[in-house]
Amino acid sequence: MNTHLITALALAAQGVPVLPLREGKLPFGNCRRCADNACGGRPNMKTAGPCHCPGVCHAWAAATNDPEVIRSGIWRRAWVQAGAVAYHPGGAWLTVVDLDNTDAITWARENLPATQAVATTRGEHWIYLGPMQSANGVRPGVDIKSTMSYARWLGPGTGTMTKLPDVVRALTRKEPAPVRPGAQAVTVPALVRGGECRHRTPAYLDRGIAMAVQRITEARSAVHATVYRTFLAVLSAHGRCGCLTDTHIGRLFTAAQAKGETARHCADAWTNARTKLGM
Predict the structure, then answer these.
(1) CA 268/CA 272 separation, integer angstroms
(2) How many alpha carbons fall within 13 Å on the CB side of residue 106?
(3) Taking the CB of residue 110, how many other CB atoms lie within 10 A of it?
(4) Distance CA 165, CA 128 (A)
């Protein structure tokens, strides 16, 4: 029996909805009957809508744990052509945090609760118990795979699975995630005071800080670089006089930490920006 089919049946027996992937980690394309969404885009699942296509052409939505479907003729031919086995995490009541590189893994170890981890080609899958909405690019090198998504099956991994925490759910929210208590407890080198102040009113500085906070908050990718460039711009405009206070700096750090930056990363970015400007 085909090894992918054996794996799929073993997973299905545990209640995990599975599907075959072509080479290149891609799902099988729509069959003629379902081309151009003629079937309404619904898979052949007992809880789904009108489509009765027996094939595997609906990507994540075709995933099933029904052994009769998995062993059927059309599916059996797909397993022969398959390059990998995939599963629907949300359908198995799971969430996969896909960490695509070493930087993403380092961030996860500093910010997320430990859980079951599975090695991938370039990074790791961290698997939590509980479903949530899927989203790509929630931060550099990090995707969320759960409902309406699929993930490759790469083995059981290591470690004990943890219940899906709020800090992972917060990654897909548009509003900033809450800053962890005590995360701002960091020493920021004092600025050199006494330079000529070019601010005619306090409102000028307040607007500048508000714009900087907004720039960090709205960053959807490259958060590290955005934080550094924003710190650099603030220091360039306001760092050589006595107007920029610890309160202003705290607002910038809070915004950065709400995007997932650690206190150490904030302090390093601030120091690097000051060094760049010779301050």
Answers:
(1) 6
(2) 7
(3) 12
(4) 8
Please state the rounded mean pLDDT for residues 227-245. Answer: 81
Tokens in use for 113? Answer: 């609760």
DSSP state for residue 60 in the 8-state scheme = G
156-198: pLDDT as tens digits: 999 999 999 999 999 988 654 444 444 444 445 545 444 555 5
Average pLDDT, the chain: 82
pLDDT per residue over 64-73, tens digit each?
Answer: 999 999 998 8
Arithmetic mean of pLDDT, 136-140: 91
In Å, the largest CA–CA distance within the chain is 80
- Mean pLDDT score, 238-264: 80
Contact at 8 Å (CB) between 97 and 108?
yes
Q: What is the CA radius of gyration of the chain?
A: 24
CA distance 212 to 209: 5
Do 117 and 127 form a contact (C-beta atoms < 8 A)? yes
Angle between helices 202-217 and 223-238 (to 10 degrees): 170
* Region of 166 on the Ramachandran plot (φ > 0 left; ψ -120 to 50 alpha; else beta): alpha
pTM for this structure? 0.60
Distances 166 to 12, 80, 158 between C-alpha atoms, Å: 29, 40, 22
